[in-house]
Design brief:
single chain; alpha/beta; Rossmann fold
């Protein structure tokens, strides 16, 4: 049994909808990388977990198309979806259960400085080995993205922060 999970944080249509206040600009390059990574993870027998942020407001309502996983990201029947309604993907979800036998997590997602960071901190506190793929994460601005990754590395030296290309080599 492979003890690695690919965790994809909040890759939802609301992030690609230009009319949404949660739009993070063009992420077509990240989507292409995530699809490549998902294929790789499937071949390596990684468990794949998406998080899906849901709230009562319109953009994140469970019944809205914008709250669904980004349409262009390939999905398969074995993918797990953890529904959450707070920044922390471990808070009142089954994330702990989904990661029960997992030792290593590979993390990508949106927003780097909020839900991605919160997941990484939770996984770190659960003593998991963590790789953040920095070119597969996105914040509203480059400064927040870079600061968050730098701060995570400074405060948790064991975390690996890599570009997808370096991870695959």
């Amino acid at each position: 049994m492979n003890k690695t999970a690919l965790v994809l944080i909040d890759f939802q249509n609301v992030r690609t909808d230009e009319k949404s206040p949660y739009y993070v600009w063009d992420i077509s390059d990240i989507i292409a990388k995530v699809n490549y990574l998902k294929d790789y993870a499937q071949k390596m027998w990684y468990k794949t977990i998406f998080t899906r942020h849901l709230e009562s407001n319109w953009d994140f309502s469970q019944h809205e198309q914008n709250s669904e996983i980004i349409t262009e990201i390939s999905k398969n029947e074995n993918d797990i979806i953890v529904k959450k309604n707070k920044i922390n993907p471990f808070y009142k979800t089954d994330m702990d259960e989904q990661l029960k036998w997992i030792e290593n997590v590979v993390v990508c997602g949106i927003l780097t400085n909020l839900c991605v960071r919160s997941f990484v901190e939770g996984a770190y506190d659960r003593e998991m080995n963590i790789v953040i793929l920095k070119d597969c994460c996105k914040a509203f601005d480059k400064k927040s993205h870079e600061f968050t990754l730098e701060d995570l590395k400074k405060t948790r030296e064991e975390i690996d922060i890599l570009d997808l290309q370096w991870f695959l080599e």
